Amino acid sequence: MLKNLPRYECLLEASKEFPDLDPSATEVFLHLLRTGDEAFRVVETHLASHDITQGGFGVLMALWGRCRGNQPGRDALSPAALAEHTGVTRATMTGLVDTLERDGLVRRHPDPADRRMVTVELTREGESLLERILPEHFRQMAWLMAPLTETERKTFVGLLAKLLQRAADPAEAPLATASTP
Questions:
Q1: Three-state SS string across the chain, please?
Q2: Contact (CB, 8 A) for 40 and 54
Q3: Which CATH fold would you assign to the domain 52-145?
Q4: Maximal CA-CA distance, the chain
């Protein structure tokens, strides 16, 4: 991602050559991506200090029973459900679960209803890791959002929800056309 974003004037100039370039939309989009990259970097640095990746953290959080009102360590999900919940492919999930299991943070069990299937659950070690990570993780989120007032935060969430809804509907996306040489 670009570290130094183009000035609005440069986008205006580029729009003369590319009529589909909406300077204000492009400016917002680039700032959104740049900010997202920096927020990701803040979290990634913190997680790396605990020897866990963003993907592994996502799996642990998906299994963390308190997220759905269950008792910790009592919640188990199939790898397919974990993949769906975290937004990764099943193949990626297999690798994530393999690593987390190797590190003693999760364990696989045969599904009692269908022995061909397995479920994955958080181990006590996985729960302990989350208990160590989460306080600082939450402090970092609060620190990052501190410049925004409560009203601005609510507005921001609403705006992001609009963008998420738009991005999630590929039927409305403009068709990509192959450029001719």
A1: CCCCCCCHHHHHHHHHHCCCCCHHHHHHHHHHHHHHHHHHHHHHHHHHCCCCCHHHHHHHHHHCHHHHCCCCCCCEECHHHHHHHHCCCHHHHHHHHHHHHHCCCEEEEECCCCCCCEEEEECHHHHHHHHHHHHHHHHHHHHHHCCCCHHHHHHHHHHHHHHHHHHCCHHHCCCCCCCCC
A2: yes
A3: Arc Repressor Mutant, subunit A (1.10.10)
A4: 64
Q: How far is CA 98 from the centre of its chain?
A: 20
Give one word for 73, left, alpha or beta, with left for phi > 0 and alpha for psi -120 to 50.
Answer: left
Per residue in 70-102, pLDDT (tens digit) is 554 457 889 999 999 899 999 999 999 999 999
What's the mean pLDDT in 104-127? 91
Residue-level pLDDT at 75: 72
Predicted confidence band at 111 (pLDDT cuts at 50, 70, 90)?
Answer: confident
